[in-house]
Amino acid sequence: MIETRYHDSVNVLQALAADAASTPFARADWFALLAHSGLAPLIASASDGTATAALALTEAEGRITALRNWYSFTWRDHAPPGTAGERLLAAIARRLRGRGWRVTLEPVPDEDGAARRLVRAFAAAGWQVALEPCDVNHVLEVRGRSFAQYWDSRPGPLRTTLKRKARKVETDVLTRFDPAVWVQYEAIYAASWKPAEDHPAMLRAFAEAEGAAGRLRLGIARAGDVAVAAQCWTVENGVAYIHKLAHLESHRSLSAGTTLSAALFAHVIENDRVALVDFGTGDQPYKADWMNTRRIRYRIDCLNPARPRAWPPLARRALRRSRAGDAPATLAPAHLQS
């Protein structure tokens, strides 16, 4: 017998996330930061007495979405592998039909089949499910190379820029949180081309915690006494994550961002010995200069046919599919070489 429950606290994820957290964005403390930022958690869980699964969600007016914000590279379920996990996820999906008219989950990876099993679980529970790409993730598969070997494989213009501009700035990579350097990072970000941060206090709290755990890699580049570029990375389970990067537009001619990126790549490859560098979401062309693999992130949009509010979007979805020749939802290959 499977018991399903709802929880309004992320504490229930502590044990599950400890087992499943292969990324910063699957840990219970990440969801706690999201809740502290103002998102109201709706944790849906299912247990059969021997195993437990959960989905970290939030809800507004019957619309249920993944508990995430724009700092989240990915969102995924917390469930054991195999058929046991799929049964529990399907039980959660059935329970959610009594709660809302629409469930939207994104950005879900599928390198390990995460998107596929969520699609199966919600379809089995009676939801009408649509699957579509929603974002792109660029990564570097290091493949045991040294930084010098990796750098030799980069495009000529990028290598030339570093050779010409590297002496114009000094770089430092910190493995701890430094409040003064963080203030410099925030000043650089505010003066850069980047959009305003949604929750800067959340990012700082994350950086502080990652610094205390030894996972933070905080880079700063200076031209004389002026901090001109800054980047926030973390390292975990053999993966380096590039969370934030910015440079001063007023000093763009220095190419300080390129020099600082190279210093951080060198650090995580040579010192941390990572197997993968993850550039987060976004398909900006410059990312392909640094990375060698492009992965798709998916949106799983589930409509409840028993709810009248779902009928108009269901009709629109059916119309789109008929115009497209009723093409079924498909998943791209997990890794696309760039």
Characterise the protein shown here:
By secondary structure, the chain is an alpha+beta fold. Helices cover 35% and strands 29% of the residues. The chain has 2 domains: 3-135 and 296-337, Aminopeptidase (3-Layer(aba) Sandwich); 143-274, Aminopeptidase. It has helices spanning 13-20, 28-36, 82-96, 114-124, 147-152, 156-165, 179-191, 200-212, 256-270, 287-290, 311-323, and strands at residues 3-7, 41-47, 52-60, 63-66, 102-108, 128-141, 170-174, 216-223, 226-236, 239-247, 276-281, 293-303, 336-337. Strands 1, 2, 3, 4, 5, 6, 7, 8, 9, 10, 11, 12 and 13 form a 13-stranded mixed β-sheet that branches. Strand 10 (239-247), helix 9 (256-270) and strand 11 form a beta-alpha-beta unit. The protein starts with a strand and ends with a strand.
Structure at a glance:
The protein has 338 residues and is an alpha+beta fold.
